[in-house]
Amino acid sequence: MPWTPLSHSIYRWWKQEGLAAARLGLAVSGGADSMALASVFAELRQALRLEVHILHVHHGPGLLRSFRDESLSRVREYSEKEGLCFHAISSSEELHGEKALRDLRRQAMLAWQGELRLDWLATAHHAEDLLETQILRLIRGTGQQGLAAMSMQKKPWLRPFLKHSRHSLRLHLAHRQVRWLEDPSNENPQYLRNWLRHHWLPTLEERVPGAVFRLGQSLETLAARSFSLPFSKGNTIPMSHYLRLSVADRRRLLAHFLHRLKGRDYRFSHIEEIRKRLDNPQVEHIFKVAGVLWQVNAEQILVQKMD
User: Fold this and answer.
1) Tens digit of each residue's pLDDT (9 = 90 or more) over 204-228
2) Is 93 in contact with 61 (CB distance < 8 Å)?
3) pLDDT digits (tens, 9 = 90+) for 15-52
4) Pairing of strands 300-305, 292-296
5) In this structure, are residues 305 and 292 in contact, taking their beta carbons and an 8 Å threshold?
6) Angle formed at CA 306 by CA 227 and CA 285, multiple of 5 degrees
7) According to DSSP H, which parts of 17-165 are helical?
8) Which homologous superfamily is 5-124+151-185 in?
9) Where are the domains of the chain?
10) Is-contact 235 260, C-beta < 8 A?
11) What CATH number was assigned to the domain covering residues 236-305?
12) Distance separating alpha carbons of residues 37 and 122, to the nearest angstrom
Protein backbone atom coordinates (compact mmCIF):
# COMPACT_ATOMS: atom_id res chain seq x y z
CA MET A 1 0.00 0.00 0.00
CA PRO A 2 1.47 3.44 -0.97
CA TRP A 3 2.44 5.74 1.85
CA THR A 4 0.26 8.73 2.68
CA PRO A 5 1.63 12.30 2.21
CA LEU A 6 2.12 12.53 5.97
CA SER A 7 4.15 9.31 6.08
CA HIS A 8 6.28 10.49 3.13
CA SER A 9 6.97 13.77 4.91
CA ILE A 10 7.97 12.08 8.18
CA TYR A 11 10.22 9.63 6.31
CA ARG A 12 12.03 12.53 4.59
CA TRP A 13 12.39 14.41 7.88
CA TRP A 14 13.83 11.34 9.64
CA LYS A 15 16.45 10.89 6.91
CA GLN A 16 17.30 14.60 6.71
CA GLU A 17 17.89 14.67 10.46
CA GLY A 18 20.27 11.72 10.15
CA LEU A 19 18.29 9.63 12.63
CA ALA A 20 19.32 5.99 12.63
CA ALA A 21 17.58 2.68 13.26
CA ALA A 22 16.14 2.89 16.75
CA ARG A 23 13.96 1.51 19.51
CA LEU A 24 11.11 4.00 19.44
CA GLY A 25 8.46 4.56 22.11
CA LEU A 26 5.23 6.24 21.01
CA ALA A 27 2.92 7.99 23.48
CA VAL A 28 -0.53 6.84 22.35
CA SER A 29 -3.65 7.88 24.25
CA GLY A 30 -6.19 6.71 21.71
CA GLY A 31 -7.02 10.24 20.51
CA ALA A 32 -6.75 11.29 16.88
CA ASP A 33 -3.28 12.82 17.03
CA SER A 34 -1.61 9.94 18.84
CA MET A 35 -3.36 7.34 16.67
CA ALA A 36 -1.94 9.15 13.63
CA LEU A 37 1.50 8.88 15.28
CA ALA A 38 1.04 5.13 15.78
CA SER A 39 -0.24 4.65 12.24
CA VAL A 40 2.58 6.60 10.57
CA PHE A 41 5.36 4.76 12.39
CA ALA A 42 3.66 1.40 11.92
CA GLU A 43 3.81 2.24 8.22
CA LEU A 44 7.44 3.36 8.29
CA ARG A 45 8.98 0.89 10.75
CA GLN A 46 10.49 -1.41 8.14
CA ALA A 47 11.83 1.37 5.91
CA LEU A 48 13.40 3.15 8.89
CA ARG A 49 14.39 -0.06 10.70
CA LEU A 50 12.48 0.79 13.86
CA GLU A 51 11.41 -1.32 16.80
CA VAL A 52 8.16 0.40 17.73
CA HIS A 53 6.65 0.29 21.23
CA ILE A 54 3.19 1.69 21.97
CA LEU A 55 3.09 3.36 25.42
CA HIS A 56 -0.33 4.03 26.95
CA VAL A 57 -1.06 5.77 30.27
CA HIS A 58 -4.46 5.16 31.86
CA HIS A 59 -5.31 8.13 34.09
CA GLY A 60 -7.07 5.95 36.65
CA PRO A 61 -10.40 6.33 38.47
CA GLY A 62 -12.67 9.34 38.19
CA LEU A 63 -15.61 10.66 36.16
CA LEU A 64 -13.93 9.64 32.89
CA ARG A 65 -13.12 6.07 33.99
CA SER A 66 -15.29 4.40 31.32
CA PHE A 67 -13.74 6.54 28.57
CA ARG A 68 -10.26 5.73 29.84
CA ASP A 69 -11.03 2.01 29.94
CA GLU A 70 -12.31 2.16 26.37
CA SER A 71 -9.20 4.05 25.25
CA LEU A 72 -6.96 1.40 26.81
CA SER A 73 -8.86 -1.37 24.99
CA ARG A 74 -8.82 0.50 21.70
CA VAL A 75 -5.07 1.17 21.78
CA ARG A 76 -4.30 -2.40 22.83
CA GLU A 77 -6.49 -3.74 20.03
CA TYR A 78 -4.79 -1.53 17.44
CA SER A 79 -1.31 -2.52 18.65
CA GLU A 80 -2.11 -6.21 18.40
CA LYS A 81 -3.62 -5.76 14.94
CA GLU A 82 -0.46 -4.00 13.71
CA GLY A 83 1.94 -6.34 15.53
CA LEU A 84 3.34 -3.57 17.73
CA CYS A 85 4.69 -4.03 21.27
CA PHE A 86 2.12 -2.66 23.72
CA HIS A 87 2.76 -1.36 27.25
CA ALA A 88 0.27 0.25 29.64
CA ILE A 89 0.24 1.66 33.15
CA SER A 90 -2.67 2.91 35.24
CA SER A 91 -2.87 5.34 38.13
CA SER A 92 -4.25 3.69 41.26
CA GLU A 93 -5.64 6.95 42.60
CA GLU A 94 -7.82 9.69 41.19
CA LEU A 95 -5.79 12.58 39.84
CA HIS A 96 -6.96 16.18 39.58
CA GLY A 97 -5.76 18.90 37.25
CA GLU A 98 -3.85 18.96 33.98
CA LYS A 99 -0.46 19.16 35.69
CA ALA A 100 -0.99 15.96 37.71
CA LEU A 101 -2.02 14.07 34.56
CA ARG A 102 0.87 15.50 32.56
CA ASP A 103 3.37 14.60 35.29
CA LEU A 104 2.04 11.03 35.43
CA ARG A 105 2.49 10.63 31.67
CA ARG A 106 5.98 12.07 31.66
CA GLN A 107 7.16 9.93 34.58
CA ALA A 108 5.73 6.79 32.98
CA MET A 109 7.36 7.55 29.63
CA LEU A 110 10.78 8.12 31.17
CA ALA A 111 10.44 4.95 33.25
CA TRP A 112 9.63 2.97 30.10
CA GLN A 113 12.61 4.49 28.35
CA GLY A 114 14.91 2.97 30.93
CA GLU A 115 13.13 -0.37 31.27
CA LEU A 116 12.78 -0.97 27.52
CA ARG A 117 16.07 0.67 26.52
CA LEU A 118 14.28 3.04 24.15
CA ASP A 119 16.35 5.46 22.08
CA TRP A 120 13.52 7.95 21.59
CA LEU A 121 10.15 8.86 23.07
CA ALA A 122 7.79 10.37 20.50
CA THR A 123 4.69 12.46 21.12
CA ALA A 124 2.04 13.65 18.65
CA HIS A 125 2.21 17.41 19.26
CA HIS A 126 1.42 19.27 16.03
CA ALA A 127 1.58 22.86 14.76
CA GLU A 128 -1.63 23.99 16.48
CA ASP A 129 -0.45 22.50 19.80
CA LEU A 130 2.73 24.54 19.49
CA LEU A 131 0.83 27.75 18.74
CA GLU A 132 -1.54 27.23 21.67
CA THR A 133 1.38 26.61 24.03
CA GLN A 134 3.17 29.75 22.84
CA ILE A 135 0.06 31.87 23.37
CA LEU A 136 -0.45 30.43 26.86
CA ARG A 137 3.15 31.25 27.76
CA LEU A 138 2.76 34.81 26.49
CA ILE A 139 -0.34 35.15 28.68
CA ARG A 140 1.69 33.93 31.67
CA GLY A 141 4.38 36.53 30.93
CA THR A 142 7.32 34.19 30.36
CA GLY A 143 8.91 36.49 27.80
CA GLN A 144 10.63 35.70 24.52
CA GLN A 145 12.38 32.64 25.94
CA GLY A 146 9.00 31.07 26.68
CA LEU A 147 8.18 31.07 22.96
CA ALA A 148 10.73 28.32 22.42
CA ALA A 149 8.04 25.98 23.71
CA MET A 150 8.80 22.73 21.91
CA SER A 151 11.46 21.30 19.63
CA MET A 152 11.14 18.49 17.13
CA GLN A 153 14.18 16.70 18.51
CA LYS A 154 15.63 17.00 22.00
CA LYS A 155 16.91 13.78 23.51
CA PRO A 156 15.04 11.63 24.43
CA TRP A 157 11.97 13.40 23.00
CA LEU A 158 10.80 13.48 19.40
CA ARG A 159 7.88 15.58 18.13
CA PRO A 160 7.78 14.65 14.44
CA PHE A 161 4.42 16.37 13.75
CA LEU A 162 5.35 19.90 14.91
CA LYS A 163 5.45 21.21 11.34
CA HIS A 164 2.18 19.50 10.42
CA SER A 165 -1.38 20.69 10.95
CA ARG A 166 -4.14 18.91 12.82
CA HIS A 167 -5.94 18.65 9.47
CA SER A 168 -3.06 16.73 7.85
CA LEU A 169 -3.18 14.18 10.68
CA ARG A 170 -6.93 13.73 10.20
CA LEU A 171 -6.42 13.18 6.47
CA HIS A 172 -3.91 10.41 7.20
CA LEU A 173 -6.37 8.72 9.58
CA ALA A 174 -9.11 8.93 6.97
CA HIS A 175 -6.86 7.37 4.31
CA ARG A 176 -5.91 4.53 6.64
CA GLN A 177 -9.42 4.20 8.14
CA VAL A 178 -8.01 4.35 11.65
CA ARG A 179 -10.54 4.99 14.41
CA TRP A 180 -9.89 7.14 17.45
CA LEU A 181 -11.67 8.31 20.60
CA GLU A 182 -12.28 11.96 21.50
CA ASP A 183 -11.44 12.80 25.12
CA PRO A 184 -14.54 14.56 26.56
CA SER A 185 -12.32 16.83 28.64
CA ASN A 186 -10.91 18.33 25.42
CA GLU A 187 -14.23 20.11 24.92
CA ASN A 188 -14.39 21.65 28.40
CA PRO A 189 -13.93 25.45 28.00
CA GLN A 190 -12.97 25.85 31.67
CA TYR A 191 -9.46 24.89 30.53
CA LEU A 192 -7.83 27.90 28.90
CA ARG A 193 -6.19 25.80 26.19
CA ASN A 194 -9.59 24.40 25.15
CA TRP A 195 -11.09 27.89 25.08
CA LEU A 196 -8.26 29.09 22.85
CA ARG A 197 -8.64 26.07 20.57
CA HIS A 198 -12.41 26.02 20.21
CA HIS A 199 -13.35 29.68 20.63
CA TRP A 200 -10.63 32.34 20.41
CA LEU A 201 -8.54 31.00 17.53
CA PRO A 202 -11.56 30.06 15.33
CA THR A 203 -13.08 33.50 15.99
CA LEU A 204 -9.80 35.17 15.04
CA GLU A 205 -9.59 33.11 11.85
CA GLU A 206 -13.20 33.93 10.94
CA ARG A 207 -12.58 37.64 11.50
CA VAL A 208 -9.20 37.71 9.70
CA PRO A 209 -8.73 34.70 7.37
CA GLY A 210 -5.15 33.42 7.49
CA ALA A 211 -4.48 35.16 10.81
CA VAL A 212 -3.84 31.96 12.78
CA PHE A 213 -1.20 30.78 10.32
CA ARG A 214 0.52 34.19 10.27
CA LEU A 215 0.39 34.40 14.07
CA GLY A 216 2.13 31.03 14.29
CA GLN A 217 4.80 32.18 11.82
CA SER A 218 5.40 35.40 13.77
CA LEU A 219 5.78 33.60 17.09
CA GLU A 220 8.17 31.08 15.55
CA THR A 221 10.27 33.93 14.15
CA LEU A 222 10.40 35.59 17.57
CA ALA A 223 11.29 32.29 19.22
CA ALA A 224 14.20 31.82 16.83
CA ARG A 225 15.73 35.14 17.88
CA SER A 226 17.40 33.90 21.03
CA PHE A 227 18.71 36.42 23.52
CA SER A 228 22.49 36.68 23.23
CA LEU A 229 24.44 36.75 26.51
CA PRO A 230 28.09 37.24 25.44
CA PHE A 231 29.12 38.32 28.95
CA SER A 232 27.58 35.48 30.96
CA LYS A 233 29.58 32.45 31.98
CA GLY A 234 27.63 29.41 33.10
CA ASN A 235 25.26 30.58 35.83
CA THR A 236 27.14 33.78 36.63
CA ILE A 237 26.25 37.35 35.62
CA PRO A 238 28.86 40.10 36.15
CA MET A 239 27.16 42.81 38.20
CA SER A 240 28.82 45.59 36.19
CA HIS A 241 27.18 44.33 32.99
CA TYR A 242 23.80 43.77 34.64
CA LEU A 243 23.70 47.34 35.93
CA ARG A 244 24.34 48.71 32.42
CA LEU A 245 21.28 46.94 30.98
CA SER A 246 17.96 48.67 30.42
CA VAL A 247 14.99 47.50 32.48
CA ALA A 248 13.65 45.63 29.42
CA ASP A 249 16.96 43.86 28.86
CA ARG A 250 17.21 42.98 32.56
CA ARG A 251 13.84 41.29 32.28
CA ARG A 252 15.00 39.40 29.18
CA LEU A 253 18.18 38.32 30.94
CA LEU A 254 16.32 37.08 34.02
CA ALA A 255 13.76 35.28 31.84
CA HIS A 256 16.65 33.57 30.03
CA PHE A 257 18.03 32.13 33.26
CA LEU A 258 14.62 31.14 34.61
CA HIS A 259 13.76 29.39 31.37
CA ARG A 260 17.09 27.57 31.31
CA LEU A 261 16.79 26.41 34.92
CA LYS A 262 13.02 26.03 35.32
CA GLY A 263 11.63 25.46 31.83
CA ARG A 264 8.11 26.87 31.70
CA ASP A 265 7.54 26.92 35.45
CA TYR A 266 7.81 30.67 36.03
CA ARG A 267 5.75 33.82 35.54
CA PHE A 268 6.25 37.50 34.82
CA SER A 269 5.64 38.23 38.50
CA HIS A 270 8.73 36.12 39.34
CA ILE A 271 10.84 38.14 36.91
CA GLU A 272 9.68 41.40 38.47
CA GLU A 273 10.31 40.20 42.01
CA ILE A 274 13.85 39.10 41.13
CA ARG A 275 14.56 42.38 39.32
CA LYS A 276 13.42 44.44 42.31
CA ARG A 277 15.46 42.35 44.75
CA LEU A 278 18.57 42.78 42.60
CA ASP A 279 18.08 46.54 42.90
CA ASN A 280 18.63 46.17 46.65
CA PRO A 281 21.50 48.52 47.62
CA GLN A 282 22.80 45.93 50.10
CA VAL A 283 26.24 44.79 48.86
CA GLU A 284 25.80 41.09 49.61
CA HIS A 285 22.55 39.19 49.93
CA ILE A 286 20.90 35.87 49.08
CA PHE A 287 17.29 35.24 48.18
CA LYS A 288 15.08 32.54 46.67
CA VAL A 289 12.46 33.11 43.99
CA ALA A 290 10.73 30.59 41.66
CA GLY A 291 12.74 27.68 43.05
CA VAL A 292 16.03 29.39 42.13
CA LEU A 293 18.74 30.61 44.52
CA TRP A 294 20.20 34.05 43.75
CA GLN A 295 23.50 34.95 45.43
CA VAL A 296 24.51 38.57 44.97
CA ASN A 297 27.69 40.48 45.75
CA ALA A 298 29.43 43.55 44.34
CA GLU A 299 31.10 41.60 41.54
CA GLN A 300 28.52 39.09 40.33
CA ILE A 301 25.13 37.40 40.51
CA LEU A 302 25.29 33.60 40.89
CA VAL A 303 22.15 31.72 39.85
CA GLN A 304 21.52 28.13 41.01
CA LYS A 305 18.53 25.82 40.71
CA MET A 306 17.28 24.47 44.03
CA ASP A 307 16.60 20.72 44.33
Assistant:
1) 989 998 888 888 877 876 775 555 5
2) yes
3) 988 888 899 999 999 999 999 999 999 999 999 999 99
4) antiparallel
5) yes
6) 80
7) 32-48, 65-82, 98-116, 127-140
8) HUPs (3.40.50.620)
9) 5-124+151-185, 236-305
10) no
11) 3.30.465
12) 8
